Amino acid sequence: MTTIHDPITLAGAKLPNRLVKAAMSEALCGRDGLPNAELIQLYKTWADSSMGMLITGNVMVDPAALGEPGNCVIEADTPLEPIKAWSAAAKSAGSACVVQISHPGKQAPKGLNKQTVGPSAVPFSKEMQAFFATPKELSVDEIAVLVERFADTAARCEAGGFDGVQIHGAHGYLVSAFLSPKHNIREDNYGGSIENRMRFLTEIVTAIRAKTEEGFVLGVKLNSADFQRGGFSEEDSTTVIQKLESMGVDFVEVSGGTYEAPAMTGVKSSTKAREAYFLEFAEKLRAQTKIKLMVTGGFRTQPAMDAALASGALDLIGVARPLAIEPDVADRWLEGKTPKHEIKPIKTHLPPVDNAGLLEIFWYAAQFKDMGQGKAPNPKLSPYKVLFHYVKGNIKAMIKGGKKKPSRLRAK
Ligand SMILES: Cc1cc2nc3c(=O)[nH]c(=O)nc-3n(C[C@H](O)[C@H](O)[C@H](O)COP(=O)(O)O)c2cc1C
C-alpha cells in the first residue's frame, strides 16, 4: 500500500516522497517582480523541509495583471540569474520544484492594476464591490496574447532550472473564471459548453508543450467546483480532467472555491472528520481517470494522509498552511508524529474582509516575510495588526480605485 514515504516520478522529476507543498503566494517581491533575497531565503528553508516537491506561490505571467502587491512576475525576457538562484535554493536538498503560473483575472484588489480583465464583465457580489472592480471582457486577440504569455513564462522557468510549472486553474482566477459559467457568459468559442469554456486552458497547455522540452513537468490546479450557484460543477471538473489526461498533462491538483466562496481554506463539518476537504471528489474521479491526482486542503496528520494514499484515490498529498508556521513539519509526519501547531482560521469578524480571504493571504505573507529574513514564523500574530497595516498602506487606492498603486505589504 502506498504511504507518504514512497517516491514517485512526474515526467522528468523524481520526488523522494508523496508530500507536496501547495502554492502559497509569498508576496515578497519588489516592484520589479524579480525573485529576491527574501524569496530565495524562504525557499532555502522549505528546501530543507523534506517535502517531495515544492510548488511555488503564484507567479504572474503579466506585469499589468498582479494578484497582490509583491507578486513575482516572470516573462519571456526576465533575467535568468534571479530565477536560477531561486530554483537552485528550492532544489538544494533533493525536492523537486514546480512554479505555479497565474493570471488573477478580476480577483485583484482595486487600484493594484490599471484595469482588471475577465472572460466577461461579470461584477462581484455587492459586499465585495468595495474591494474588487468589475473586469473588462477580453477580446479574442487579447486571449491569444495571454495564452502565449503563459507559454513564455513556462519556457523561462524551464531555462531558469525549475522542474516544471503548474497552471493555476482554480480559485476564481482567470483560467478558473473562463471555466465557470457564472463568470464566463461569452457567446463565442470561449463560452457556453464546457468544451468552449475550457478552450483557454487547453490552448495554454498546448502552447506550453510547444515551448518546453519533454520531461518538463506540467500540472494544473483545478477546482472540484466553485461552490457558487450556477458555477463550475463537479461534472464540468471531471470533463476537464479527462481532457487534460488525454493531452498528457502530468498531474492535476484538486482544490475548490473562489474569493466569493473560499472553500479552499474552509472546513465543512461533513469532511472535517476526514481532514481533506476534496477527498470525496477525488474518490469519484479515480473511477474516471488515471491521471496523477493531488488533493490539497485540510490534510494535517500522517494517518489521514496514509489512509488517503492507501485508498488509491490520489497519488500526492498537498499541504499549504502548516508549512507557513512550521516549516519542518514534514519531518514530523515522516516520523509518524503530529504537528506542533494547529491551523486556525484567521478572522477579523468583519464579514467582507473575512469572506474575501485576502486577510488570510496577508497574515501568512507576514510569516513568509519573517522566514525570508531568516527568522522563525509567529503562529500568534494578531490578524487585526495585519489588517490595520494593509488598510493604512492602501486606503487611498481603495477609495479612488486605480489612481494609486497599493503599497508593498507591511504586515508587521
Ligand atoms: C497565504 C496563502 C496563499 C495562497 N496562495 C495560493 C496560490 O498562490 N496559489 C494557489 O493555488 N493556492 C494558494 N493558496 C491555497 C493553498 O494552496 C491551499 O489550496 C489551501 O491553503 C488549502 O490547503 P491547506 O489546508 O493545506 O492550507 C494559498 C493559501 C494561503 C493560506
Give a quick precis of the structure.
36% of the residues lie in helices and 13% in strands.
Descriptive notes:
There is one protein chain. The chain has one domain (8-400): TIM Barrel (Alpha-Beta Barrel), CATH 3.20.20.70. It is α/β, with parallel strands linked by helices. The longest helix is centred in the middle third of the chain and has 20 residues, at 140-159. Strands 3-4-6-9-10-11-12-13 form an eight-stranded parallel barrel, surrounded by five helices. Strands 1-2 form a two-stranded antiparallel ribbon. The chain contains 15 helices and 13 strands. Flavin mononucleotide binds next to helix 14.
Topology record:
Layout: E1 8-10, E2 13-15, E3 19-21, H1 37-47, E4 53-55, E5 59-60, H2 80-90, E6 96-102, E7 117-118, E8 136-137, H3 140-159, E9 164-169, H4 174-179, H5 194-197, H6 199-211, E10 217-223, H7 234-246, E11 251-255, H8 269-272, H9 279-286, E12 292-296, H10 302-310, E13 316-319, H11 322-325, H12 329-334, H13 351-356, H14 358-372, H15 383-400
Parallel strand pairs: 3-4, 3-13, 4-6, 5-6, 6-9, 7-8, 9-10, 10-11, 11-12, 12-13
Antiparallel strand pairs: 1-2
This protein binds flavin mononucleotide (FMN).
